[in-house]
Design brief:
With 373 residues, the chain is of the alpha/beta class. The chain has 3 domains: 139 residues, P-loop containing nucleotide triphosphate hydrolases (Rossmann fold), CATH 3.40.50; 87 residues; 117 residues, Arc Repressor Mutant, subunit A. It contains 15 helices and 7 strands. Strand 3, helix 5 and strand 4 form a beta-alpha-beta unit. The longest helix has 16 residues. The radius of gyration is 23 Å and the shape is globular.
Length: 373
């Protein structure tokens, strides 16, 4: 049982590795969640490698990305473990369970989202049959298994993002060096890409032809500047569009509709705003987009409840024509009313505090978007 060896250097993430290790020590099932390109697989591989010494019977990496049918999850697990014959009178699941029953091993299930129901069933069966194993899963949504701890992989910090950009830029142009005058431009690139590792890596390859300031300027309104990734990369990671499409194809029609409608919000929004502006909004659909890592939850002490936002790479990719005319009409009616009612103020229309920082988070309808239908 071995782990795949990455072809690039792992950058930063010391705090995240420490937190994930602490969580895994206290549970038997840890699922790393996040949008496509968040670095879930890479972080999980690094974590599994760091902790391999704690599992005397090894670490097993099971890649579920090639599967399109949930019925083959058991086959994939068995093949990875080297089980070809489950034994006379036994099912494949029983054979795998017996093989692992007395072992202390870590099973890493990677890319569970497109077969999430089957992945959940297999995970539950494995944990029941083999009480000494642990499972580390990556998925764009939780598995929903009893005892599961879900942990959202956070965006890269500014420091880690700059280090990642610099490392990958040197692969594209070996003599690349981060000069003092370029540092702020690279930080701007990382922030415009919301700290998404895949997006930063793709942007870094542009250093072969452009200065960081030019890359940052090109990303101001359009992410199409980002090129395709390595030819050997999985199709879902070849471009940001492919990564988004992988998630979008797994959504129901109400979820797709709400995702398109939420793209009118260039900043954060709360549940009241979503329901007022987005015809498809409802508690279940909003919750589902959160579970699928397409809406990020932010606790807000001013509002006393959570606010939501879309990572900028996600927000830009339901276009063109993402927000319907009906959504925009709802927005135009809701905004003046909200202003009159003091929705953006800190508790009362007459308060001395006036407009709160929430106002700056609602940069709806950027100029580049106003022409869209």
């Amino acid at each position: 049982m071995t782990l795949p060896i990455p072809l690039t250097r792992f950058v930063g993430r010391e705090a995240e590795l420490a937190e994930a290790a602490t969580l895994l020590a206290a549970t038997r099932l840890l699922t790393l969640t996040g949008p496509g390109g968040a670095g879930k697989t890479r972080l999980a591989l690094e974590l599994a490698s760091d902790l391999a010494g704690n599992f005397p019977d090894g670490v097993c990496f099971v890649d579920l990305a090639p599967l399109t049918e949930g019925e083959f999850v058991w086959d994939q697990v068995a093949t990875t473990l080297g089980i070809t014959e489950p034994g006379s009178g036994r099912s494949l699941s029983e054979g795998v369970g017996q093989y692992l029953a007395e072992r202390r091993a870590l099973i890493m299930l990677d890319n569970c989202e497109q077969v999430v129901q089957s992945a959940a069933s297999v995970t539950a069966a494995l944990l029941t049959a083999a009480p000494a194993i642990k499972v580390l899963a990556t998925s764009r949504e939780p598995l929903g298994v009893g005892g599961e701890v879900t942990w959202v992989v956070p965006p890269l910090s500014d420091g880690d993002g700059v280090e990642l950009f610099t490392d990958r830029a040197r692969q594209a142009r070996p003599h690349f060096s981060l000069r003092e005058r370029d540092a702020e431009a690279v930080r701007t690139i990382c922030r415009r890409l919301d700290g998404l590792p895949l997006a930063i890596e793709l942007a870094a390859t542009r250093a072969r032809a452009f200065a960081p300031a030019d890359i940052a300027a090109g990303l101001r309104d359009r992410l199409q500047l980002l090129p395709a990734g390595p030819r050997t990369a999985p199709a879902r990671q070849a471009t940001l569009q492919a990564s988004f499409d992988w998630s979008y194809d797994l959504l129901s029609e109400p979820e797709r509709a709400l995702l398109r409608q939420c793209s009118v919000f260039a900043g954060g929004f709360d549940l009241e705003a979503a329901i007022a502006v987005c015809p498809a909004a409802g508690l279940d659909v909003v919750g589902s987009l959160v579970d699928r890592s397409l809406l990020v939850v932010q606790d807000d002490e001013h509002q006393g409840g959570p606010r939501y936002r879309m990572l900028e790479p996600v927000r830009q990719f339901p276009s063109p024509g993402a927000a319907t005319r009906a959504t925009r009409r709802c927005w135009r009616g809701w905004w003046p009313q909200s202003c009159r009612s003091g929705w953006f103020q800190d508790g009362s229309p007459s308060s001395a505090g006036g407009w709160t920082p929430l106002t700056s988070g609602l940069r709806i309808f950027r100029p580049a978007e106003r022409h869209r239908s």
